[in-house]
Design brief:
By secondary structure, this protein is an alpha+beta fold. It folds into 2 domains: 20-49, no CATH class; 65-170, Alpha-D-Glucose-1,6-Bisphosphate, Chain A, domain 4 (2-Layer Sandwich), CATH 3.30.530. The chain has 4 helices and 6 strands, in the order αααββββββα. A hairpin with a 2-residue loop joins strand 3 and strand 4. The model is unreliable at 1-17 and 34-59 (pLDDT under 50).
């Protein structure tokens, strides 16, 4: 326990108690490496401020905000497992449908938004399907070929509606 506390204390920035973290320039001037994030005096809020890096979307994220919101709206009937707006990935958890042609079934969807443009090329959807086996467990099953495309179309339609509504709100 004492050794762990000593190691933790050694991880400090060589700053006095209460002193602000060093910037990258200050760390370089002192001969310290740049091995941590945030040493340039940035804050977590800087990730969400518009610093002009992407004037087309008004955000720092590299995904289209309308596609992102539309994907969340479209998949709102499924529980979310994880979302990452910085990489453009939305993963749902398994959602159970009442009864399919093969018996009870459930679905899981992954959405990939690869760009800040609102185009079909920037959106990919993967759908996973499982059916309940005779033993009561879930088994992988094929997904209808048109299902991912139908979800993509629904997301794109909703994204266009959101973009139009935003433009009308601006005047």
């Amino acid at each position: 326990m004492v050794a762990a506390l000593a190691l933790l204390a050694a991880c400090g920035e060589n700053n006095a108690p209460g002193e602000r973290p060093l910037t990258r320039t200050e760390r370089a001037a002192r001969g310290l490496g740049d091995d941590t994030l945030g040493t340039d005096a940035s804050t977590i809020g800087d990730l969400f401020r518009d610093n002009g890096t992407d004037p087309g979307t008004g955000q720092n994220l590299r995904v289209n905000k309308h596609l992102w919101r539309a994907a969340l709206d479209t998949l709102s009937f499924l529980p979310l497992a994880s979302t990452d707006p910085f990489s453009g990935v939305i993963v749902t958890d398994w959602g159970t449908a009442a009864q399919g042609p093969d018996g009870p079934e459930r679905f899981k969807v992954t959405v990939y938004i690869s760009d800040a443009r609102l185009t079909p090329e920037t959106l990919r959807v993967a759908v996973f399907r499982e059916v309940r086996g005779r033993d009561g467990g879930w088994q992988s099953a094929p997904v209808a070929a048109e299902l991912p495309r139908r979800i993509e179309d629904a997301i794109l339609t909703r994204a266009r509606q959101l973009r139009i509504a935003e433009r009308e709100a601006r005047g």
